[in-house]
Fold each of these.
Amino acid sequence: MAERSGQSPRTDPTVLVRGGTVIDQGGERRADVLIAEGRIASVEDGIEPPRGAVVLDAEGCVVAPGLVDLHTHLREPGREESETIATGTRAASAGGFTAVVAMPNTDPALDSAEAVRNVFDLARTATAEVAVAGAITVGREGERLAPMAELTALGVRIFTDDGSGVQSAGLMRRAFEYARGLGVTLAQHCEDGTLAAGGAMHEGAWSSRLGLPGMPAAAEEVMVARDIALARTTGGRIHFLHLSTGASIQLVRQAKAEGLWVTAEAAPHHFSLTDACTAGYDPVFRVNPPLRPSADVEAVKVGLADGTIDAIATDHAPHAPELKDLPFDQAPPGMLGLETALALAISELGLPLARVLALLCWQPAVIAGLDPAHGGDQGGPVVPGAAANLCVIDPAATWTVDPTALASRSRNTPYAGRTLTGRVRHTVFRGEPVVVDTEAQR
């Protein structure tokens, strides 16, 4: 399959992750993990470190498969002042991610073989795997389909016009039919442009109080309902990006009960922040879909707990400071997410850590087609012979978010000064320690 991103040739160290508790799809057990030649060599208690091995202390920590983000904006090509593949994957590593799905709203859009190959080439020395989401339509303009078969042949497994919803139901139906024949997944940014036009935040009590143009919840919900109907009609598969309203989540719940091939993700800001955060007109809180009222926040949490929502995806959206310093309704929407997602899930959701890891690791790996069953090496169990993509998490560690200390090129985090619980201590990507004791190694 795939010209998926790889790495330049290098010498893999022997690594021992010692003293941790392994949590994966198979459950929980106390074990050391020995890594050799980029793969897991042994998983058992009491492994003695081979001579010259790099030893990573995991005492009091959980050792898990590396996290997988379904929704990352790396900005390169075209917006390198905000992020690059190098800085974005460094941020991913700091957050425990060993794979990210790069969104196609770059400049130019990722709608051609040339553009996709360029991203793969740039990612060869990255500290995490970069999978590409191809655009559904040429230029993400919603007028004609991109060459999906050509991109699928390069290893693209997900297609989306993220940043814009495909407005034409007829065109979206053709995309479903085309995607079904290729065996790939469509992912939708659910926003009816005629309802959302001009909106800068959620339409409700706070938008009225602040005098800012609002975006109604119906703008999301109408498109969720439409695409569920199209999935039913075509037998295609649809993944809903960053769902944010209770009604949208209920629609997905009903579609799953019907047996349709529907999956969904939620972003950390939609279960940890509300539209009341916009009270000070700070553009750092502008995001799309917008922050919603507390009832919707609770609905997202319930959806994550009961399995309606399959994945936590960061929607990591870096912006250069001069862009985010514009007035609220002129600043571009988006927030950083890669380095805080795990800690926010641990701090805010009240779920068992194994459930949090399912939402951040093996379930998104399956949706992205990066898991072993699809020929990938992400999100699989921690067993001998598997690729050594791992994160080591201290679930009790507390830390305060400092924008200046983040690995991203941008600083637009809404969590500045907030104390969170749970932190990544080490990250191992294809056998190489890329984060050690919370510090990037390259």
Amino acid sequence: MTNKKKPNPIDVHVGSRIRLRRNMLGVSQEKLGESLGITFQQIQKYEKGTNRVGASRLQAIASILNAPVSFFFDGAPDGAGNGAISGFGEDNATFVTDFLSSSEGIQLNRAFVKISDPKVRRRVLDLVKALAAEPAVPE
């Protein structure tokens, strides 16, 4: 029987935030790995939390992905497992992370931020809310 150690929740969270930011920017695991001088498989391990990201490597990732190091800890569970350390509730942080981890969420976010007219942005939001309130129609 092998002794598979469960990844630390902080490592899993930091890895998921690396994946989130990488996907938000449209950077592949391979491209990020090349920029760091490591393989895409190592990036996969970081993103899954199976390998811990060292401080200097996290600083390099933050620089490449143009994000503050603190971004990777936003919404992280505290040491006692009692919710989030940022002021952002864990349920909300999970919701946003799940949304931006999906292909549709990333595409929607990219398109939405390109809309400069606040009135049009509001109409898009109202449309999405109206569609969400309707029962799903089979395709």
Amino acid sequence: MDAELIPFGSPAYGILCGVLVVARAMDFLSTWVATPNLRLEANPLARRLGWKWGILLNVVICAAVARWPMVTIMFTTTSLLVAARNFQSAWLMRSLGEERYIHWMSDRIAEAPAGLFLFCLFAQAALFAGVGGALVWYCGNLPVPFAIGAGTVVYAVAVVFYNLLSFWKIRRHARELAAAP
């Protein structure tokens, strides 16, 4: 399997599309278990699209992307890592409920030293990116390990990006509450 386009509808396309659909479905399932109303969804676009339009968009993305094996493997890797992260905390989110979880987590982030939160966030991302980067660096000309490594690096970047969005929003809200009379 190389970086070339594969024909739409071919057996290889069917396999790649199927694998990508399963990975995206795991991301959706883990999100639904954690936040059925999408209140806790970190991606503002996904939250805005909602379930129906989000699923439709992802079906179109899967159908289009499955022609590129390396991109498909990158998307699959990232989606599965996101799903695993979602499942890690989904039980807590679901048991507390979306609103209670938001308040609980916001309180924890507001009370934690910003430097500690940021250090832990960047350390976690660096560890994932290190594993992915090592795969990319040492894979030679092997496209599958390269794509898995790149997908892992993309996951690390996404974790930092979406957590920083939430962090800044929570910190800004806490400052506004502290400044209010």
Amino acid sequence: MAHERSKTHSAASQPRQDRHLRDHTHDTYGLRGKLSDPSACRTCGASYHEGRWTWRPAPVDAFQTTCPACRRAEDGQPAGLVTLEGPFLKEHRAEIEGLIRNLEEREKAEHPLKRVLSIEPRDDGAVEVATSDVHLARGIGRALHDAYQGEVDYGFTEIENLCRVHWRR
């Protein structure tokens, strides 16, 4: 659907295509309304307070729930998939996995929903990293490229609400 720009209204009031796309994107693992405040994840211990998840201890009487990251892990439904390939991977796999775990640790310390769900080797020699957050998947791709160069491709499928990152060297 094309929109014509108005000559009498500011750019901020103009319709934007990305706003229309966002309206149609639905994350099954996102919040389905307001959580009781405070709430606590019965699986990982993260607490929900004033609209965000943190690692601060929740009060004893906090509403018990399961956070979106733990639900994704339980269901085996990542938000991001990072595929690693190439001869460089075979030679430096432990170092690369260390970089990924260090990045996860830094991100997760501030944002409890950003987690690596698994790092699994594939039969073809590639490694697949599943994440609970699309931004963490993109961050892993950027970190690998910054540290080791190579080629990195990013993709997002709205239907699956899944970020795919492919790094090879």
